[in-house]
Automatic annotation (TrEMBL):
Entry-linked PROSITE patterns: ODR_DC_2_1 (PS00878), ODR_DC_2_2 (PS00879)
GO molecular function ontology, one term from the record: metal ion binding
Source species taxonomy: Bacteria, Pseudomonadati, Pseudomonadota, Gammaproteobacteria, Alteromonadales
UniProt superkingdom: Bacteria
Organism: Aliidiomarina shirensis
Extent of the signal sequence: none
Protein name in the entry: Arginine decarboxylase
Cofactor: pyridoxal 5'-phosphate; Mg(2+)
Residues annotated as domain Arginine decarboxylase C-terminal helical: 581-633
Pfam families per the UniProt record, alphabetical: Arg_decarb_HB, Arg_decarbox_C, Orn_Arg_deC_N
InterPro entries cross-referenced by the UniProt entry: Ala_racemase/Decarboxylase_C, Arg_decarb_HB, Arg_decarbox_C, Arg_decrbxlase, De-COase2_CS, De-COase2_N, De-COase2_pyr-phos_BS, Orn/DAP/Arg_de-COase
EC number annotated for this UniProt entry: 4.1.1.19
Length: 638
């Protein structure tokens, strides 16, 4: 079973190290292993031990596993890379980064990032009123920045002024001229100076799925003319000294480093010109966009990036320095708003395969019978037709199947005969596929057999809840079996979820150096759970999910690594997922009323004598326990 297969082969197939950024790899026992602390690369957590502990705690699939050490590591890496580069470059400004909470607003995530970032005065960014309320409460560090983006109303701006009153470095980044007028009016009313940032609508266009954040038609930011007008306006209100920051953000997941360089050149030039005009700017905010290599290819495809974090930081620091030196302007403090890069790696969805859908897998006796229709015997002859050219054999099978279907509709073929033809058809296709050689594989129809024959593995999860971007914009996320990686995966499969929606499936997989429509995985074993992981879900996916089919949020398991613990980790917290009750209530159902109505119907049956009273109580208890229970499927295999 394991012949000619080892974990190097599994690594080549699933590319775990290529997208794992040093955090994920395949251990010698064929389990995924996690090395969550970048300062202690030799501390490994075996995924199978995590799954065992989850089971011992009674946690069912699907679940989100968060590795808090990975969050901390990413915060440390970005801050230290900027620090070190600034020192080497003799750059005279500081790095003061912020984490944009829209990328993952979970309180525990934000708290961990703030805690890990405290030593670096790492701050927060908000883009809406509720986010602003959260950062106002949580970012208490008086040295750190709070950057306020997004469209704003009076309440938003007043909350920002409240922040100034309680000593926070809250910078209101103006997206539209009208916001500036409102802000000036309110700051006079409340007698406090705001800290003002200006968002520039950049000319450089990023590429990829999020490129519309820049360019003339971008939804956000001020044109150069508007920026100059804004400065005049502030001057006329004697508030030019409040202008502190120039901001730009050309889009998320920038895959090509050249776009970063271009944006930095444009932004730094604009910064320098404004300073020369007498605007007392101190900060240049380069926004987010630091990419994640989701497919591990290190290229400029939408799901990758062709640069390292070191290269990104160096291009920014040296790029800003060069322009400011040329323009003879003091080096600004550099702000960045990386979200995806901080959080993507720290969480994954683990779930199990609850079933398989395979058109060719049904067993059915198709042996010859006296007087059977000639189409059945014709099709049966193809089973042993190894001498026939595969293309011809395929054409014949397809033609017989089509004729059989017509005959069935006309009532000529019996239901048993139709079942036989169907069974033989799939048998023949499988046999043709196995017999293909390098030449016949080139024939398009035959090449497509791989897809036609691939099974679907049903994963106990909702794509709409846990991986919204795979459905919405074709985002790639690595999907890998969590165990058995030392065994050869022998079947090609694609993953479908348990929602009643035919879009509820994953269409693209990372396979070796390419992207496939399906992927090899192991055969399911009776009575044995087959756990799979969907990785890099910590940015956006964790928090963008919707209520499609009312599945709701997953149970979460928060893990910390610890050298002294058995297995080098402990579960710090379990956050239960949404119960059926909870998701129904979000849709305005009153679940007490529902339970009462069901009980009333049960009681009616009892009164009629159709149900024994004891039995009736059991049924209504069962209904209530399901309301309190999970929305996902219970695992029958364990
Ligand atoms: C979304 C967003 C970010 C975060 O971008 P990432 O690519 O996730 O780092 C930063 N700044 C602004 C203004 C944003 O809208």
């Amino acid at each position: 079973m394991t012949q000619q297969w080892n974990i190097e082969d599994a690594e080549a197939l699933y590319g775990v190290k290529r997208w794992g950024a040093g955090y994920f790899s395949i251990g010698e026992h064929g389990n995924i292993q996690i090395s969550p602390n970048h300062r202690k690369p030799d501390v490994y957590i075996d995924m199978n031990e995590v799954l065992a502990e989850m089971k011992a705690e009674g946690i069912e699939f699907p679940a989100v596993i968060r590795f808090h050490d990975i969050l901390r590591s990413q915060v440390e890496i970005i801050n230290e890379t900027f620090r070190d580069t600034i020192e080497t470059a003799n750059y005279s400004g500081k790095y003061v980064g912020v984490y944009p909470i829209k990328v993952n607003q979970m309180r525990e995530v934000v708290e961990e990032i703030l805690d890990a970032g405290e030593a670096y005065n790492y701050g927060l960014e908000a883009g809406s009123k509720p986010e602003l309320m959260a950062v106002l409460a949580y970012n208490e560090n008086p040295e750190a920045l709070t950057i306020l983006n997004g469209y704003k109303d009076e309440d938003y701006l007043t909350l920002a002024l409240l922040g100034r009153h309680i000593g926070r470095n809250m910078i209101v980044v103006v997206e539209k001229f009208s916001e500036l007028e409102m802000l000036v009016r309110l700051s006079k009313k409340y007698k406090i100076d705001p800290m003002i940032g200006l968002r520039s609508k950049m000319m450089v266009r990023s590429t990829g799925k999020w490129s519309s954040s820049s360019g003339d038609r971008a939804k956000f930011g001020l044109s150069i003319a508007e920026i100059v007008n804004a400065m005049e306006y502030l001057k006329s209100h004697d508030m030019l000294h409040c202008a502190k920051l120039l901001h730009f953000h050309i889009g998320s997941q920038i895959s090509d480093i050249r776009k970063v360089k271009e944006a930095v050149t444009e932004g730094a030039r604009l910064y320098a010109k404004l300073v020369q005009m007498g605007v007392p700017l101190e900060y240049l905010d380069i926004g987010g966009g630091l990419g994640i290599d989701y497919d591990g290819s290190s290229t400029t495809t939408d799901s990758s990036r062709n640069y390292s974090t070191e290269e990104y930081v160096a291009d920014i620091v040296y790029g800003v320095k060069q322009i400011c030196d040329l323009e003879e302007v003091k080096h600004p403090n550099i702000v960045s708003e990386s979200g995806r890069a901080i959080t993507a790696h720290h969480s994954l969805v683990v779930t199990n395969v609850v079933g398989e859908v395979n058109p060719g897998a049904t067993e059915f006796d198709f042996s010859a019978e006296e007087g059977e229709h000639v189409l059945v015997s014709n099709m049966r002859e193809l089973v042993n037709g190894h001498d026939i050219h595969p293309q011809e054999r395929y054409n014949d099978a397809a033609a017989y199947k089509q004729s059989a279907y017509e005959a069935f509709k006309l009532g000529i073929l019996s239901i048993r005969e139709m079942a036989k033809i169907d069974t033989i058809y799939w048998r023949v296709l499988t046999d043709i596929h196995h017999g293909l050689d390098s030449e016949t594989r080139q024939i398009q129809e035959l090449e497509e057999l791989e897809d036609t024959l691939a099974s679907q593995y049903l994963a106990n999860m909702s794509i709409f809840q846990s991986a919204a971007d795979t459905w919405a914009i074709g985002q790639l996320l690595p999907i890998v079996p969590l165990t058995r990686l030392h065994e050869k995966p022998e079947v090609r499969i694609s993953i479908a979820d348990i929602t009643c929606d035919s879009d509820g499936k994953i269409g693209k997989y990372i396979e070796g150096n390419s992207i496939s429509d399906n992927i090899p995985m192991h055969r399911l074993r009776k009575g044995e759970s087959y756990p799979i992981g969907m990785f890099l879900t910590g940015a956006y996916q964790d928090v963008m999910g919707d209520m499609h089919n009312l599945f709701g949020r997953l149970t979460e398991v928060h893990i910390f690594s610890h050298d002294d613990e058995p297995g080098a980790f402990y579960i710090e917290e379990i956050v239960p997922g949404h119960s059926a009750e909870k998701v129904l209530e979000t849709m305005q159902y009153n679940t007490d009323y529902m339970a009462k109505m069901v009980k009333k119907s049960i009681d009616k049956q009892i009164r009629k004598g159709a149900l024994a009273p004891r039995e009736g109580v059991r049924w209504s208890d069962f209904y209530e326990s399901c309301l309190a229970g999970t929305t996902y499927l219970r695992d029958e295999r364990k």
